[in-house]
Amino acid sequence: MAAKYKSYSIGNIHNIPGINVLEDSMIEDIKLVAEIYPFKTNNYVLENLIDWDNFVNDPIFRLNFPAREMLTNEDFEQLRLGRERMSVDEYQQLINDIRVGLNPHPAGQSSFNIPFDNGVKLEGIQHKYKTTVLFFPSHNQTCHAYCTFCFRWPQFVSGLNMKIQAKETEPLINYLKANKCITDVLITGGDPMVMNSRILESYIDTLLEVDSIETIRIGTKSLSFWPHKFVDEEDADKLLAVLKKVVDAGKHLAIMAHFNHGVELSSSLVATAILNLKKIGAEIRTQGPLLKSINNSSNVWADMWKKQVQLGCVPYYMFLPRDTGAQHYFAETLPNALKIYREAIQQVSGLARTARGPVMSVVTGKVEVLDIKNDVYYLRYLQHRSPEETYKIFLGKSKVEAPTWFSDLEYINEEDAHLFI
Ligand SMILES: *Cc1c(COP(=O)(O)O)cnc(C)c1O
Ligand code: SF4
């Protein structure tokens, strides 16, 4: 029988089977925090990934259900009082003000990365690194469930008017044809794997018209949140056939799969989903951020990477949570992050050491922390807006007691000053 997707958000949170194990006050907290951050879950996540007997410490519960601590005490109290006392308009304004204060567009993504074509701004496209363009189709500005730590959270809330999305493909195609150095298109969102096969096909067919494109990447968390997509959903076979067109056209199909914990790789359904993707010639690379209260342990990462390699996936990036939203709640310090990365890498076979990290996506590029010795940070841009800066090692020192982000670091040598902008 075809799998049926059942979605839950704040409106029907009380219909979640088993939700009554949560105390009422906890549900009230979730509702309040969800005024700021989006909340959504589904039957697969609820039934297969969360251990309801121990939900308080469960990594996937924390990954999916907003926690009170994601807001500062001040914002939380303001909201709580505001909900009781303010008019609808005032309350909406308060929500908006809090959201704007949470740096909804980190790493300059709304100002620096949007390309122009003959003076016209290309909406829904980001071009930061020479070879790779990000494409945000308007059809997939949602996900099968939402992550509490998502750095794209403004994509899913209304009223901010900060969504990145493209309503048509023609400007993208013209841009790709005019910039032949672009070899990779990364379809992202949201989760492109919420699209049905018919809509996805129109995007894939259009992209395959561009000869200079060598790789189509698809950024997705559906292997974790809804693996039925590639196995037993009504549209599954058709979807796989559409994806296979990329491989049949002689191009590389790269599934950039988002995982945060080994639990997500443990069901037989996800193993079948991975196998089905590999059968059509896709390569699956995995990435995800290091998060307090969810996966801040080297054993969790080592276990996850081992499972990925066993299932035929290639570990790719360990990110650090970006400077937006509830970063204050999820971010480990840089020394802790490096320790977790290294102790995880030390446990695994060379085949899992393709995972690079810890990595920060910042305005200038992707910064890897290579080492920290005597308070000197050894850093490297894995990607830089200017290709000539890529892969050079440079040094930094911390400006604060417990650095969690690149902006907490500064240069040691004057000649590296431009790398810290
Ligand atoms: C991470 C990222 C990419 C892809 O970088 P790779 O190192 O090639 O995986 C492309 N564009 C943006 C804006 C990114 O943040
Ligand atoms: S699946 Fe990805 S885009 Fe969607 S909420 Fe999670 S991190 Fe954000």
UniProtKB/TrEMBL annotation:
Its cofactor is pyridoxal 5'-phosphate; [4Fe-4S] cluster. It comes from the Bacteria. InterPro entries: Aldolase_TIM (IPR013785), Lys_aminomutase/Glu_NH3_mut (IPR003739), rSAM (IPR007197), rSAM_sf (IPR058240). The keyword Transport does not apply. Keywords: 4Fe-4S, Iron, Iron-sulfur, Metal-binding, Pyridoxal phosphate, S-adenosyl-L-methionine. One of its GO terms (molecular function) is 4 iron, 4 sulfur cluster binding. The keyword Transcription does not apply. Transmembrane segments: none annotated. Belongs to the radical SAM superfamily. KamA family. This is Lysine 2,3-aminomutase.
